[in-house]
Amino acid sequence: MREVAIVGVGLTKFGELWETSLRQLIVEAGLRALEDCGVDGKEIDAMYVGNMSAGQFVRQEHISSLIADHAGLVPIPCTRVEAACASGGVALRQAFIAVASGIHDIVVAGGVEKMTDTLTGQTTGALATAADQEWEAYIGSTFPALYALMARRHMHEYGTTEEQMAEVAVKNHHNACLNPYAQYRREITVEDVLNSPPVTLPLKLLDCSPITDGGACVILAPADRAREFTDTPIIIKGTGQASDALSLHDRSTLTSLRAAVHAADEAYKMAGIGPKDIDLAEVHDCFTIAEIMAIEDLGFCKKGEGGKITEEGETALDGRIPINTSGGLKGKGHPVGATGIAQTVEIVTQLRGEAGKRQVSGAEIGLAHNIGGSGGTCVVHIFQRGD
Amino acid sequence: MDVGIVGYGVYIPQYRIKVEEIAKVWGADPEQIKRGLMVEEKSVPGPDEDTATIAVEAARAAVRRANIDPREIGAIYVGSESHPYAVKPTATIVAEAVGATPDLTAADYEFACKAGTAGIQTCMGMVEAGMIEYGMAVGADTAQSAPGDALEYTAAAGGAAFIVGRNGKRTIASIDGTYSYTTDTPDFWRREMRPYPKHGGRFTGEPAYFRHIISAAKGLLQQLKLTPEDFTYAVFHQPNGKFPLKAAKILGFSKEQVLPGLVVTKIGNTYSGSTLIGLALILDNARPGDRILAVSYGSGAGSDAFSLTVQDGINNNGDATLKVMDYVNRKEYIDYGTYAKLRRLLVR
Amino acid sequence: MAVPRFWREIPNRYNLIGTKCGNCNTVFFPPRSVCPKCRRMGKLEPYKLRGRGKIVSYCTVHVPADGFEDAVPYVLAIVELEEGPRITAQITDCNPDSVKIGDEVEVTFRQIREESQDGLIYYGYKFKPVSNPPSEG
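Output (structure tokens, whole complex):
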């Protein structure tokens, strides 16, 4: 297996992009990634694009062909990857496998979601199709509801508080203020979160990530060719993916995503490192409770102490283990299929030392944790600076 | 006649609205209404309840009380004037939900407030004829009333299910006879596609309710050669509290015979459920040997009268189900705004 | 939801029919056709659950799923049934503020939602605070 590097990254602005279509989003992100590393379109061998549900959001399936076409990349193979909100992370893993195996050399891993061409109710309804339609959605479950069930149980078992969950949103909004690509560049307070309208109690509006349009791309190359394209190649040191029961009620626990624990174990093992070696991480904070569970599942603190270490500032930009320096899904935005790739873009930017005001000093190893649905899929990647 | 009741069950939704709360909206005098109707409050179905769900809950309780294999039920009839579908039976939903499918016959009945007792008569005939082992008749309603109409104070929700079988060890009460009195008397109706019923005001009284109830009761007493003194209890359809008491008086029954089954004051008129819930309340407290007269009334119009004798089976399995009074006492009061939401009076 | 899709699950939705593995005796609801423990050694047969259990977690939905607008606010919970399986269900006939983890609940037959004003009505299980004696079981 060959070592694989990320040589280029590109993002669109995240937000309600009324004037931009799905095809424009992915093409814009791709062009920026190519520009970032000077790769010519002719050199690209293949493309994997994460997308949760263009079929529901813009009534367009078969977007692999659409994207290859509009990117000017036909006839290269382009594959659309779907694993709900983990689509991007899984696309990256597929691209990694393609390069590592030697089948392809230069591969684009992208992600895109256009979520504002439907009314909000339709959009949240489309997202809910990532849950079990027969036994969760049928009886009135929504995604906030599934995470609220996890939150309530976490509060019950570990004494996690609504204030601690609010701290996740406050921190991520703060980080988003420092990220020019982020959707919400405004500071909020714990009181703002606690007083925001109820969505599904105990989760309030500001506990939830927003509906976002956005695209993201990264360019992968064999590590031994990486310097042809960049002075700061970022090596993918580990990758792990795992599945769990689709329905929350079929899981062994409500307070940990076992898929995340398995995926992280696999990624750590492959990278030959442990949680203590990670300098920063982008985790899947679709809801504030999800970040608290993520940092526990990834081993950054003891089980049940995620709320406590957040409250104590350990996950802040200047903390022991900075989490979601980009603003996370909460502050930066959550174009679901693009999220896994956007997390990768942030880690690469940080490890290159190009993160500006939100730069974590001396960052050498970073991790991205991307969840599909309520935890039915998790994919974890570990990245290291190539020098 | 060799048939009887082998199981019964009731269901009454937990929500209640008081006469005062409705009267307030229309500027009416609640004391005058309560005196006039002898109704203090009425039951209201929850947001997820309808005639089918009420019928299922009552039917499941009846099966539990009878302690029979539901697959032995050969016929299910659900009587209601508020079936959730205009076309598509409620009875199939009930049959499926009690586990009686697929080897049975089923149908919905509609005869204003007496469709449930019509179902009992059908089951009696089928059991007696040897067509079926057990038959179940359900009377259930979520009665409609136009906002501001006099019916709004009483139109309530509830239901009861009775399982009929050949007399034997299981028999809770044998049915000694039945008699019906039917004429074409349009005192109350609802046209196709219309949400609320209309009624003939005072015409619903003497020529409608009283004439039919009294004729059916007299017919049965004559047929069985019985007099009011032969009965421990009597239950007459309860559109309000006054009508059954007045009917009893005309027929020569005492208040003491009627009051034990009078439940309309606390839950309102449950239409197809009304007579049957009253009968269930009496059975909840009856002893072997007690004789009960039960007379339903359905607008349009007809009455079915039954004479029942309580048997030793009354002592079987009494703890398997909630009693009528358990449901009557389990209540959550709502205001008119919530009532309007639950009754889907709010238009989007 | 298309009519056949609702109809197909009526026994499960009306009567809590799950499956039980004859090899390891594990009960599943929703029903499974492969036992994850015994896999090909498993022998799955229909199994009716009694419909009693305890609340493992709950939440109160204020922003509803499509088709649940009239139910707001409604309580959604994961209930651990006596026979072992856990089930996601609405808790009805309750005051959302008084629901607690550990509360005993029992199944009740309710409207889940309707397709539209002229569409099919979907019925199925909800749970409610337990009454004594059980009104289902």
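The longest strand of chain A covers residues 234-243.
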